[in-house]
Write a structure and sequence with these properties.
single chain; mainly alpha; Growth Hormone, Chain: A
């Protein structure tokens, strides 16, 4: 089965396949967050220990992000994703093989196993979005880049919306181990699909990945490092990475802690928590593609590419900060859940403009550009799952969430220093 159009024409079948793959990967990414309550109960883990498990994923994701982007630029979209999907399936299934507490399992050994598995899952997930944005940059009409990237990154909302009710339903009836196995089934299906997918020959580098000037394979790493360094010198790219780092800090709080916050801090039941924690991701399945679509439309107006791309992230991240503060301050559980759900949808609505701008500035190195920017996001996300519960224990969850609100506003203001229509990366 061959995918991809020619002459830059949009191939929305490719976009749908990339989105489905990213959604399946995201189920394998967030399933532990939903199952976390029962995992903590079985092994007697506290919030700080579970925060280490969550952050282990981000550590692997962050460390392998730039190598993953370079790999995707060398291998192409289909070849990269076809090898990742099987890894998601195997690693997710291995979670269910952890020793049981009622059979005398050593808690520290289990904790170390969880940390190791989440680290490896992060490593295998790292090239997913850089490979996807590379496919968009090569095979989608530039006028639709915001929509295409928004649709693909919308897997964040779709996967997170599916995970709480699906994983909870299986978990309540058969336990969290069965829920982990069930959450890997979509990835298994997509892994099988990628076995028969082929890009046209001109959609990927032909044959072996090209060697850098000078020829020897040992020089490739140095050349790749130089390309990353040149990219960071592109005007505005550093500010773009900083803003996405702050967006990552805020977004990963909701990815990892929203469900547990509602259950353990707001004292909502497991079932009600599953319903409420699905709301932000249901909203995000609309807000993420809508953010890309609005951004594309604004670029075609008198605002042009600079303010057309800026407005969505500035409004989205600024508005998220406001709703986070409302949700943190209110004493009413349902109002807190609703406000934080809106904040999540707003902070994620900016994905299309971010990834489109990164690809625009990086040009031929679009996967590497996306990977560098996303590394910043992951650094923010690496900090927030560990720091937020520490702040919550020391000062209360309201101040901890107010910190996130201020960082979200700061990320919005950073876009004043970013010109999405700026010069391309040197290469």
């Amino acid at each position: 089965m061959v995918i991809g159009g020619r002459g830059g024409r949009a191939d929305w079948g490719l976009v749908a396949l990339l989105s489905g793959t990213a959604t399946a990967a995201y189920l394998c990414r967030v399933n532990v967050s939903v199952a976390g309550a029962l995992i903590m109960e079985e092994y007697g883990l506290n919030q700080a220990q579970m925060g280490r498990v969550f952050s282990a994923f981000l550590l692997g994701y962050t460390l392998l992000m730039m190598p993953g982007g370079l790999l995707a630029d060398a291998w192409g979209t289909t070849r990269t994703l076809s090898r990742l999907a099987w890894g998601w399936v195997a690693l997710t299934a291995l979670h269910a093989a952890l020793p049981r507490a009622d059979r005398g399992a050593d808690v520290l050994v289990v904790l170390a196993g969880l940390v190791a598995l989440r680290f490896l899952m992060g490593a295998f997930a790292a090239p997913t979005y850089p490979a996807a944005v590379q496919g968009v940059s090569r095979w989608i009409d530039p006028r639709a880049h915001g929509r295409a990237n928004g649709f693909i990154i919308g897997s964040v909302g779709l996967g997170s919306a599916i995970a709480p009710p699906f994983v909870t339903a299986v978990m309540i009836r058969w336990g969290w181990r069965a829920a982990m196995v069930a959450s890997a089934l979509p990835a298994l299906a997509l892994a099988a699909v990628w076995l028969i997918v082929r890009e046209p020959a001109d959609a990927r580098p032909a044959g072996r990945p090209p060697q850098p000037a000078g020829g020897p394979p040992e020089a490739r790493g140095a050349a790749d490092a130089r390309s990353v360094a040149r990219l960071l010198r592109v005007p505005g790219f550093g500010w773009l990475t900083l803003s996405y780092s702050l967006q990552g800090y805020v977004g990963y709080i909701f990815i990892f802690w929203f469900y547990l916050y509602l259950v353990q801090v707001r004292h909502i039941s497991l079932v009600e928590g599953a319903v409420w924690s699905s709301l932000p991701w249901v909203l995000s399945t609309v807000s993420i593609p809508a953010g890309g679509w609005v951004s594309d439309r604004l670029v075609q107006t008198r605002l042009g590419p600079a303010w057309g791309r800026r407005l969505v992230p500035m409004v989205g991240m600024g508005g998220a900060g406001l709703f986070i503060s409302i949700g943190a301050h209110t004493a009413t559980a349902w109002l807190a859940a609703g406000s934080l759900a809106v904040a999540t949808a707003l902070v994620l609505s900016v994905e299309g403009p971010f990834w489109t701008t990164a690809a625009r500035l990086a040009r031929a190195r679009s996967a590497t550009g996306g990977a560098v920017m996303n590394t910043g996001c992951n650094i923010g996300g690496l900090v927030s799952p560990m720091l937020t519960p520490v702040l919550g224990q020391a000062f209360g969850w309201e101040p901890a969430l107010h910190v996130a609100a201020m960082l979200s506003v700061a990320g919005a203001l950073a876009w004043l220093r970013i010109n999405p229509a700026g010069p391309p990366a040197a290469r």
